[in-house]
């Protein structure tokens, strides 16, 4: 069983940076893909960034060039570095991973990111 726990959210001003973390209790190596999603009030959850176990990445067009997803295997943690934040980045950010063997998808409970103008 894998548990994902997000942390690092908070309130920042537009243009500032924030790094959020996703710690995996079952070991990050068990996840074939680790992704960050976000959900703003009244909107559907959307994929922000993804990282495969081989290091491949993908980003939503809205965050390309501003956000970076990375992983530290020794800490079983995936990060999302968010630069040049905009008010429209305000959302609850969720970490999600897909088990490499069972293909089961796991979700964290989310961390709130609020960007003021």
Note the topology.
Blueprint lengths: L3 E4 L2 E4 L4 E7 L6 E9 L6 E7 L4 E3 L7 E6 L4 E6 L8 E9 L5 E3 L3 E6 L1
Parallel strand pairs: 2-11
Antiparallel strand pairs: 1-3, 3-8, 4-5, 4-9, 5-6, 7-8, 9-10, 9-11
Number of strand elements? 11
Task: Indicate the mean pLDDT.
Answer: 95
Helical segment tally?
0
Largest sheet: 7 strands, mixed
CA gyration radius, whole angstroms: 13 Å
Quaternary? single chain
In whole angstroms, the N-to-C terminal distance is 40 Å
- The H/E string reads EEEEEEEEEEE
Global outline: globular
Low-pLDDT ranges: none
- Secondary-structure-derived class: mainly beta
Percent helix, as a range, is under 10%
Mind explaining what this structure looks like?
It is a single chain. With 117 residues, the protein is mainly β. The protein contains no helices and eleven strands. The protein has strands at residues 4-7, 10-13, 18-24, 31-39, 46-52, 57-59, 67-72, 77-82, 91-99, 105-107, 111-116. Strand 5 and strand 6 form a beta hairpin. The chain is globular.
Please sum up the structure shown.
This protein is an all-beta fold and 117 residues long. 0% of the residues lie in helices and 55% in strands.
What tags apply to this protein structure?
globular; 7-stranded mixed beta sheet; mainly beta; 4-stranded antiparallel beta sheet; 117 residues; 11 strands
């Amino acid at each position: 069983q894998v548990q994902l726990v997000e942390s690092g959210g908070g309130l920042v001003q537009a243009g500032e940076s924030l790094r959020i973390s996703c710690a995996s209790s079952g070991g990050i190596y068990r996840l074939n893909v680790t992704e960050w999603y976000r959900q703003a009030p009244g909107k559907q959850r959307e994929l922000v960034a993804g990282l495969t176990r081989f290091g491949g990445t993908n980003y939503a067009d809205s965050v390309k060039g501003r956000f970076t997803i990375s992983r530290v295997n020794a800490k079983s943690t995936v990060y999302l570095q968010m630069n040049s934040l905009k008010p429209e980045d305000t959302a609850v950010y969720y970490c999600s991973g897909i088990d490499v063997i069972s293909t089961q998808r796991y979700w964290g409970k989310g961390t709130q990111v609020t960007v003021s103008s």
